[in-house]
Amino acid sequence: QLIDGDDYLLQPTYEHCLDLARYHQPDLVLFQLSTSPKVPLADDYEGPCTGVEYMQTHNLRGTACGYLFSKHLLHGLRFTTMRHYAEDEEFTAQLMLNAKRLFVTPAKSYFYRQHKLSIMHRKGKRDVIQRLENTESVIFYLQSRLQTLPQSKQVALQRRIAQLTMDYLYNTARLTHCLSKLDETCERLHKHGLFPLPNKDYTSKYRLFQQLSKHRWGRRIIIATTLI
Known about the structure:
Mean pLDDT: 93
Structural class: alpha+beta
Order of helices and strands: EHEEHEHEHHHHH
Helix content: 40-55%
Radius of gyration: 18 Å
Number of strands: 5
């Protein structure tokens, strides 16, 4: 279990996650985060399924703190410490691909403290540039891993890459409010075969964004929505 220094586990609901680990021998337990220390008790769950099966039908939450996992899943997997942003996205996608027995529970078992001084709330120009560059490098890295994987894992990871790319484009619009910057990012992704976004029905939000982002008038709309 990975825990940020300013957060903590919510014991009543985290015990449920530990029970899943004790009695079901999972590779990985996926639970929910909370921004409030007061949470309802929960004892329901779904599983087991493989991480690949889950990734093929669900959007993956990137933060590594939302997973209880067996250390054998690591197989040498470590965080890329040179990145200040998006390192969780690189880590959790690969961790999930290795999971043979995944259980999912709605239990809110981790208190995620939000404060203005956290790295994710920094909006200085240098921080914005670094955040976007780090995210792009993670996307390119995950793309480079595709050809090393069997077909089922490729399909699962392709969905995750598409979701990350959509989020990256949206954050480019939200953090820069600059159409030319968004256009440049789309062109750079196009050279790597990542744009336009794959024509998939992953979610209704993804489908709408996919249609808008491939047209310049649609990218204008995306920029405008970030200004509201």
